[in-house]
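just leaving the lab so this will be short. below you get a single protein, a line of residues and a line of whole numbers that encode the local backbone shape. id like you to explain what the token line says about the fold, in plain words if possible. thanks a lot i owe you, the record is right below:

…
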Amino acid sequence: MAVPGTEAQGGLPGGPLAGVRVVELAGIGPGPFAAMLLADLGADVVRVDRPGGAGLAIDPAYDITNRNKRSVIVDLKAADGAERVLRLVERADVLIEGYRPGVAERLGVGPETCHARNPKLVYGRMTGWGQQGPLAQRAGHDIGYIALTGTLGMIGRADEPPTVPANLVGDYAGGSLYLVVGILAALHHARDTGTGQVVDAAIVDGASHLAAMIHGMLAAGGWQDRRGANLLDGGCPFYGTYETADGQYMAVGALEQQFYDEFIELMGLADSAPARKDLARWGELRDAVAARFKDRTRDEWTAVFEGSDACVAPVLSLREAPAHPHLAARGTFVDHGGITQPAPAPRFSGTPTAVRSGPARPGADTADVARDWAVPELNEPTTKGS
């Protein structure tokens, strides 16, 4: 039987992680996103919120990274705060925290203390700099982490400052997703051996790892160590974005010869464009493509390339994306509680996932968690520290 709160809509299984219990010590950024992904996959995620909130300036009702979770409030600085969390740890499979190194230990919920209560626990640590190293104790944010790894420096036009890719490359790709992969691997090991371990997920490590292929190309001489000069960074005229007549944009990814041939034919440039392999004339080719795209609107060009293999797509905004026919047909976005949001991903044939509940409100699920996890202390008044 699944843990209460893990059933999906319609009574279907709540996902492949149904029955897995996760304690999330509230924070901001990659930790909550990683916990949301585990919750989307069916885990019973209990977020331990602190009195006064986590400090993120967003209405909790709209914080989608807290969907499919439940929340309790524990003051870890109170005399009995750590003990309340440890009681949850005794019944958990996973714990996630995103403090600076040493903070969890000072609060009484570090790995050694938690493993003394539950040797099978997978203890996930999410930081920017990692648990060791000269910068481990320094403050930081996504942009600084990816700057140091070389990842930020390779994004953008050659004649402009590096382009900031929101917080997707660092916090979420290099951070959250690597933490989740590590947790799932460690959980598999714990179930095989009965022994838990610490997962040290550092954004600098993950963001560096994301560029593995590029480092290989760099070593082989197939990538220049500068922006806007390479096949996949906008330097190539048939892999980039172009403005249309209405100030919108089209994305072109016609890398392979057969796709490029179709692209250049539909653009009406087959008889005039310079050879694509002539790197000395790439600037001329880019100018010709850019001028042609300015002749029509984004919607008109979308119609031109509809049904083709030219690898061209309109650049949509966040509000436009859910209505695209392909994404709508797949149900890539869902509406839940009045919020349009990405559906859980990936998909599973035997254990389907769903958005089961909206963002957890701080402390709203205390009574239910106290009952389901058999931790009645959660309902008791906090004992103030000295």
Notes: The chain is about 30% helix and 15% strand. Confidence is low (pLDDT under 50) at residues 1-12. The first helix runs from residue 30 to 40.
